[in-house]
């Protein structure tokens, strides 16, 4: 009996017995049905194998795209970070010149303290940029959401100032969560960047509001702007990869998708809505989470 699948013969099924009795019609029908089921199973196995290969290729492609998005974001930050580093370096150079001319021990001590603070400031800026650029598996530790927001705003400070955007923060008493601080910063960065771009394109200025409140078994973060908002038809699509409402060359449509992936990996929720008074608001809800067995004593970062 031929074994078929999609009009192709995959093989044959043979049945014999050591008697002279002929097979009945019911037995032949059973054999035909068995051959059909075997053909269907073989074809399903082939389709499953091909689908797994395609999914793995898609996963690798998505990883490459996310890496490219991260590098693009780092490139955009580079100019602002260079400006931020230049400020403490100028302070250091100025203090060194003063120290070389000073004979006052107290003045020398104060100058050294100023140099120490400026040097740490420059080192922290570089460290935060390097951490942002790294991509590693999810590593949960005790994490203060407000600290991560401050770090993102610090990296984005020069761009926000250049776009004449005022930042307002309102942080309530919320619990620490178990999260990957680097990836959480990445998600917050894309939300802040999206708001900055929306306000810059429409008004050339604006107000960015970030509010943190307790949520059911977790934390709620609201990132709001007073830009043009999101068309109602696009609210459900803003997190789709490569979807963007910006003009050609103004966006790749990946930032919000990356943020959504990070939040989903933390078993949280991220959605967009329009504000009654104008502008858009992106709401992120993250659970407190549970630590991995080997990170139960991990410190806050």
Structural notes for this entry:
By secondary structure, the chain is an alpha+beta fold. It has helices at residues 25-101, 105-133, 145-162, 181-202, 255-265; strands at 2-5, 8-12, 141-143, 165-171, 177-179, 206-215, 218-225, 269-274, 280-287. The protein is elongated and about 120 Å long. The model is unreliable at 296-301 (pLDDT under 50).
- CATH class category label of the largest domain: Alpha Beta
The H-and-E topology, N to C, reads as EEHHEHEEHEEHEE
Q: Report the sheet with the most strands, covering strand number, pairing sense and barrel closure.
A: 5 strands, mixed
CATH architecture group name of the largest domain: 2-Layer Sandwich
Q: Report the uncertain regions.
A: 296-301
CATH homologous superfamily of the largest domain, by name?
A: Histidine kinase-like ATPase, C-terminal domain
Helix content: 40-55%
Secondary structure class reads alpha+beta
What count of domains describes the coordinates? 2
Radius of gyration over all CA atoms, rounded: 30 Å
The CATH topology of the largest domain turns out to be Heat Shock Protein 90
Tally of strands: 9
């Amino acid at each position: 009996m031929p074994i078929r699948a999609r009009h192709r013969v995959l093989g044959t099924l043979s049945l014999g017995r050591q008697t002279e009795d002929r097979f009945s019609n019911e037995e032949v029908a059973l054999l035909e049905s068995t051959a059909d089921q075997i053909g269907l199973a073989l074809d399903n196995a082939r389709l499953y194998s091909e689908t797994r290969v395609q999914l793995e290729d898609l996963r690798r492609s998505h990883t490459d795209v996310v890496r490219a998005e991260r590098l693009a974001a780092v490139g955009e930050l580079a100019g602002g970070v260079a400006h931020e580093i230049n400020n403490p370096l100028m302070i250091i150079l100025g203090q060194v010149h003063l120290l070389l001319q000073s004979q006052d021990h107290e003045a020398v001590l104060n100058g050294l303290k100023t140099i120490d603070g400026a040097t740490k400031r420059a080192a922290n800026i570089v460290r935060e940029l390097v951490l942002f650029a790294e991509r590693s598996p999810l590593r949960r530790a005790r994490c203060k959401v407000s600290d991560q927001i401050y770090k993102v705003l610090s990296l984005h400070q020069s761009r926000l100032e250049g776009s004449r955007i005022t930042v307002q923060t309102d942080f309530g008493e919320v619990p620490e969560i178990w999260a990957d601080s680097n990836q959480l910063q990445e998600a917050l960065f894309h939300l802040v960047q999206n708001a900055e771009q929306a306000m810059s394109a429409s008004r050339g200025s604006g107000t960015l509001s970030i509010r943190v409140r307790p949520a059911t078994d977790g934390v709620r973060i609201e990132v709001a702007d007073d830009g043009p908002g999101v068309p109602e038809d696009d609210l459900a699509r803003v997190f789709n990869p490569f979807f963007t409402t910006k003009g050609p060359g103004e966006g790749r449509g990946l930032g919000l998708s990356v943020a959504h992936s990070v939040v989903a990996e933390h078993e949280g929720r991220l959605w967009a809505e329009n504000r009654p008074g104008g502008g858009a608001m992106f709401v992120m809800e993250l659970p407190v989470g549970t630590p991995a067995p080997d990170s139960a004593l991990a410190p806050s970062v």
